[in-house]
Amino acid sequence: MYRQVLVFAVFAAFLCGFPASCARNLNYRPIIGILAQENLEDDPHAQGSSYIAASYVKHLESAGARVVPIHINRTEEEYEKLFNVINGLLLPGGNVDIEKSQFTRAAKVFYELAIKANDASDYFPIWGTCQGFQQLTVLTSNKNLLTLTDTKAVALPLTFSPGAQNSRLFKKFPKDVLQSLAEENITSNFHSWSLSMQNYSSNAKLKRFYRVLTTNTDGKKEFISTMEAYRYPFYAVQWHPEKSPFEWIEKAGMVHTLSAIKATFYTAHFFVSEAMKNHHQFSSQSEEEKALIYNYQPVFKGLNSIFLQNYYFD
Question: Which stretch is the leader sequence (predicted)?
Fold first, then answer.
């Protein structure tokens, strides 16, 4: 039994980039918060006021994390209390106003708490996917610098920036996964807005804060598809790693190949391994149990829905 635990510890250390000697300091029970957002106006299945797509929950659970839903319309005090008991934050894709929504308000509170915590050596990672990527750019620059691109439903290969394969995010990815990401159409894009390289390059705050890891183009505009912060464990992808294994609508841009699934696996494990470096915890098991996503039931929305299942919240 001890040998099995040791092997797992070494594997986890490999995933997170720490030497095996540091593996004992990792938190093997990470809990990651996923921020809910306002319901879509045309969702016939909507309940309450907000939702989280189940694919994001499954994405994190597949890599060994548990999930706590973060509700909108809560007080800053409630958000700070929750921040201090979770080990990371995921900002999901969706379709809300990333300047004026309740999603944005809550994201800003957690973003500022994460900056403060990391500055105090309390390692707290944030991941943004699609809308989450866009939200992070607004929070960092205090501006909406997005531009329209023709990327509504398309799968693309990633164009890696020089040295990006040695970044924190990608350096532990197997060579075959990196090659697939660079050569195959396996990253799902479902967005109309992007951060162009031109707008990124002209904004001093973004340039100082984020390192560009990959770019893409819609044939006319080059936009950033993957980035990570220089000083903070903040990561953002404009594409959707969670869709390949967990969303099944038959639509252009949806990819279920073996290489796409493998890339999803390493993406999820990277972020969960980052959350393992945080040691926030609930004050009691009963408080933890009350907060977990298991207290809610996902709603099946049908095979023709962009989200196969949603969790809904009051």
Answer: 1-23
Q: Is residue 178 part of a domain?
A: yes
CA–CA dist 297, 106 (Å, integer): 23
- The CATH number that applies at residue 203 is 3.40.50.880
Query: What band does 23 get if pLDDT is binned at 50, 70 and 90?
Result: low
Amino acid letter, residue 248: W
pTM for the whole structure: 0.92
Angle at 204 between CA 17 and CA 190, to 5 degrees: 65
Can you tell me the distance from the alpha carbon of 61 to that of 31, in angstroms, rounded to the nearest whole number? 10
Q: What are the C-alpha distances in Å from 41 to residues 49, 113, 129?
A: 10, 31, 21
Which positions are catalytic? 130, 240
pLDDT in tens, 194-228: 999 999 999 999 999 999 999 999 999 999 999 99
Which letter, b or e, does each residue of 26-42 get, where b requires 16 or more Cβ atoms within 10 Å of its Cβ?
Answer: beeebbbbbbbbbbbee
Band (pLDDT 50/70/90 cuts) for residue 259 is very high
Range(s) of the domain holding residue 270: 28-313
| Domain annotation covers residue 11 | no
**Taking the chain, what is the end-to-end CA distance rounded to the nearest angstrom?**
44
Residue 12 has pLDDT above 60, yes or no: no
Residue 104 lies in a domain: yes
Please state whether beta strands 37-38 and 50-53 pair in parallel, antiparallel, or not at all (unpaired). antiparallel
* 247: number of Cβ within 10 Å: 22
Q: What is the DSSP letter of 223?
A: E
Number of domains in the chain: 1
Residue 297 reports pLDDT greater than 90: yes
